[in-house]
Amino acid sequence: MKTQGSGRKFSPTNVIGSLIYFMDKEFNNDPKIIHTTIAQLKQKPEYKELLEEFDFLDYDTYPYSPLLGRTLNRLQESRLLSSINPGYEKYQMNEKTKAVIKTQVIDAKLSDQATKLEEMASILQKALQ
User: Fold this and answer.
1) pLDDT tens across 54-105, in order?
2) Half-sphere exposure of 7 (CA within 13 A, CB side)
3) What is the per-residue pLDDT for 7?
4) d(CA 100, CA 63)
5) Residue 2: its pLDDT value, please?
6) Which of 2-6, 30-34, 43-47, 119-123 is the least confident region?
7) What is the predicted pLDDT for the residue at 88?
8) Nearest 5°: phi and psi at 57?
9) Which pLDDT tens digit goes with each residue over 30-49?
């Protein structure tokens, strides 16, 4: 967990949940694109602080972060993120969950990073289309 200069803390789950908050309600669940895009974003100085805990392995044909995989699973297990049946090809975050993430995570822990998170979400959303 990272401590910000303001003394507030945020976790990798806070970062990814907040990033997803800024995306469309429903989006493709393509691990290759998700991991590759987050790995590319981590290389940009403006996003490095938010993504510094995510390490990527040269895994098969794309960079893979075990922490990112666990984070997405944790969001699903806590029912903040859903995989849509039958093929589990899309993720979905409902409006009630988005409201909780907005107040309890973005406003409370990441308000000074909201613009960067929204930029990252836009880049990921475009990559997944």
Assistant:
1) 999 987 789 999 999 999 999 999 999 998 877 788 999 999 999 999 999 9
2) 0
3) 52
4) 31
5) 53
6) 2-6
7) 82
8) -105, 150
9) 999 999 999 999 999 999 99
Q: Are strands 57-59 and 62-64 parallel, antiparallel or unpaired?
A: antiparallel
108 token code pair: 């409370």
User: Where do the structural domains in the chain lie, given as residue ranges?
Assistant: 2-128
Closest C-alpha among 120, 83, 41 to residue 54: 41
Q: How many other C-beta atoms can be found within 10 angstroms of the C-beta atom of residue 93?
A: 20
Residue 2: strand pairing partners: 10
Q: Which helix (H) or strand (E) holds 39?
A: helix 31-42
Per-position DSSP letters for the chain, written without gaps between them:
-EEPTTS-EE-HHHHHHHHHHTS-SEEE--HHHHHHHHHHHHTSHHHHHHHTT---EEETTEEE-HHHHHHHHHHHHTTSSEEETTTT-EEE--HHHHHHHIIIIIHHH-GGGHHHHHHHHHHHHHHH-
Model confidence at 6, in pLDDT bands (50, 70, 90)?
Answer: very low
* Amino acid found at 19: L
